Structures are given as structure tokens and as C-alpha cells.
Amino acid sequence: MKWIRDPIYNSYWFHRFINRLMQKGYKTHSENAVYQAMRNIKYKGNLHPYLSFFVLLENLRPSMNTVPKRIGRKIHQIPIPLYRSSGYRIVLKWIAQSIKLQDDPKLSNRISGEILALITNSKSIVLKKREDLLKTILDNRTFSNFRWR
User: Fewer CB atoms < 10 Å away: N or C end of the chain?
Assistant: First the structure.
């Protein structure tokens, strides 16, 4: 399988991020917005946009997730380990959802604002979702032995 990459950063995950933000099939609009946001990050935050994006993905990536499994009459949330690519996919979904919930009419400002907020550990929906997932995993760690059934 050939991995499709974006033209500027030559990265598969940037390509996935652009596709995740695409609305109504306008890929060039989301490409332009992401690249403008990366320029904003470079000038506002004095950071290398490509490296900061991947450090952010690696820091936010969950290593475990929960899957529902019926045991007897109850449905338990069973913690399972995740592959690295699945964790990246989940983080990209969280970031795209939080970007779409913001009020700024310009997509590039929303993207750069969210990424800068995540880098500086400000309040963000993504951090809340990550904390909720970790709390769910810790609450259900006693059911991890049901993973093999």
C-alpha cells in the first residue's frame, strides 16, 4: 500500500490531519488553512511547526483505550493496548472536533490557536478528553483480565 503524503512536509499524518479537517470535499481550502496555521505557529510561538505538531501528537497519544464487552448480563469497558497509529488517529479526531467547535470564522486561526493552546497546556477540549479516557481506563483496570475471553 502506498502511503499518501502532503506536498510540503512530506508527512502521512499531516495528510490525515488535512483530510480530517476537510469540509464538503474542499481539500484545497483545508490544505491552505493548515499551512497558514503552521506559518502562524512559526511566527507567534517561535516554534518549528512540523516538529511541534509531532511532539504534540506523541504527547497526547493514548496508549490504551476501552472497548465494551458483554460478560453475563453486564457490559464492561475493557482496557486494551493501542497501536501507535491508532493512538495518533484518536488524537487527530479529538483535535479536529475541538477545532470545529470554536467560534473564529477563519479556519487557520482556529487551528493555530488550538495547537498553541495544546502546546502551552492551556484549557482545551482535547486535554479534557484525554483525562477522561485515562480516568475510564483506571476505573476499569480490574476488568483487564476479561480481555482474553
Answer: N
The amino acid sitting at 133 is L
Domain extent, residue 121, equals 12-148
pLDDT in tens, 103-126: 889 999 999 999 989 988 878 889
- Contact between 128 and 118 (Cβ < 8 Å): no
Q: What is the dihedral of CA 111, 116, 117, 120, to 10 degrees?
A: 160
Plot region of 71 (φ>0 → left; ψ -120 to 50 → alpha; else → beta):
beta
Model confidence, pTM: 0.87
Task: Classify residue 129: in a domain, yes or no.
Answer: yes
Helix (H, G, I), strand (E, B) or coil at 1: coil
Structural domain includes residue 17: yes
The answer to whether 137 touches 129, Cβ cutoff 8 Å, is no
The verdict on residue 5 lying in a domain is no
Instruction: Report if residue 65 sits inside a domain.
Output: yes
CA-based torsion, 79, 61, 133, 138: positive or negative: positive
